[in-house]
Amino acid sequence: MSLGRTFLDVRPLRTSPLFRRLLIGRTVSTLGNFMTMVTVMFQVWDMTHSAVWSGAVGLAQALPMIGFGLFAGAWVDRVDRRRVYLLGTIGQAACSLLLAVQGLTGHVPVAVVLGLVAAQSSFGAVGAPAAGVFVPRLLPKDQVAAGLALNQVTGQAMMLLGPAVAGVVLGWWGIGVCYLLDALSFGVSFYGAFGLPALPPEGEKSRPGLHGVLDGLRFLTGHRVMRGALLTDLAATVLAMPASLFPLVNAERFGGDPRTLGLFLSALAVGGVAATAFSGPVTRLARPGPVMLCASATWGVALALFGLMTNAWVGLGMLVLAGAADAVAVLSRTTIVQTRTPDALLGRVTAAETIVGQAGPHLGNLRAGVVAGWASAATALVTGGLLCLLAVVGVGVTTPELRRGGGTEESAASGGTASEQDSSPPAAKPGDASASPATGTDGSPTTAAAGP
Fold it and tell me: In this structure, how many other beta carbons lie within 10 angstroms of the beta carbon of residue 393?
């Protein structure tokens, strides 16, 4: 294999000017998002000095995504996705502007800040399913994984850069300017998507309301590859999420040195960036199923070994390995979702994937904390990693379609399994407004950042 094929596949940047512009907009907006995340946590702590209120920031961000996501996905699968994305971007920018105003003009009740955070997250819940259709509509099938990898590596880079930039801006100019810069970043994201053509669903539109949501869930539960991919992600996040254990591990093993704790938090991101930078062979392989299973199993094993380490540098090596495995697993899962889902269902499936990504880590951190309180941080890490490994093996054994490949070529050659063919949403009744087919379009655009 040539050296050039080892690095990140950049063909989408050369072949699609639209994708290039959208990637720039998404990258700038993601930088602003991470700046706001840090600023909100700083402001809420400064206002309250309460761990409870600080914890409420995470709830304000996650609950709207979980509560509105599936219904937003059903709406996205009925209308022009480009317009929905632009609407979500405008709403998020408006919330950032209001946060900037309250930051520049003086103190407001902390509940107002959290309300604005929740409103911004609600607009994000609308925009994320719309953005989920852009890459597969814009790029040829053999470049979708490469496009997703480019989205992922830029998102990870902004995750490293955003908090540092926020710290500098907070120190020099204060919270209001930090929020204002985030609002301006949404303008770049808006520009990236504004010139796109209309992007209505290709195929049968979603039925309105709860019926459309249930159709999407029926597809997910009936499609064995998709179900296996989401179950694998849940196994990795719920059973082996380590972040909440880092302070306790640092205290138990390494004397509570804050420098070591900071390195723990950075090691996962470093591994993710490195793995994505060398993802060329993975994205060209076109076998995301076994790659995802192997990467998820590696994540569990690496975290279990981290729980046994007494040497800080060896432990950091295990975290770098875990971060790399997580990045490959996320990339493979997203490739499966975006290449195996019919366009007419992609908004709902993307919404479900986003909810899994939001809820799984929160549940995983809760599980880890409970086990660590009952035993120790090492016990929580080792048992969680081993349970993750067993769950991934179980998914692989019971889902041969995922184990054999999980890519588009296999599905096209076989016509899909019977269970997959039967999982399409039911046809709308004659005369129903949802029965009118969508008009196919050419081209399209951007993305959503992946999480652990």
Answer: 15
Give CATH superfamily name and number for 215-417.
MFS general substrate transporter like domains (1.20.1250.20)
- Hey, CA dihedral for 156, 83, 348, 422, is it positive or negative? negative
Distance in angstroms (rounded) separating the CA atoms of residues 133 and 176: 34
Are 19 and 443 spatial neighbours (Cβ–Cβ below 8 Å)?
Answer: no
Using 50 as the pLDDT threshold, list the residues of the chain that sit under it: 1, 408-452
Question: Which residue ranges make up each domain of the chain?
Answer: 9-200, 215-417
Strands, E, within 100-174: which ranges? none
Write the pLDDT tens digit of every residue in 145-175: 899 999 988 988 888 888 889 989 999 999 9
Residue 92 near residue 186 (C-beta atoms within 8 A)? yes
- CA torsion 426-432-434-440 (nearest 10°) is 100
Same fold, 9-200 and 215-417: yes
CA distance 166 to 169: 5
* CA gap 256, 251 in Å, rounded: 4
Its sign, for the CA torsion 428, 431, 432, 434, is positive
Taking alpha carbons only, the member of 438, 443, 418 closest to residue 428 is 438
Q: What H or E segment, with its residue span, contains residue 114? A: helix 110-131
For domain 9-200, give the CATH number. Answer: 1.20.1250.20
Report helix angle 110-131 to 17-48, nearest 10.
Answer: 160
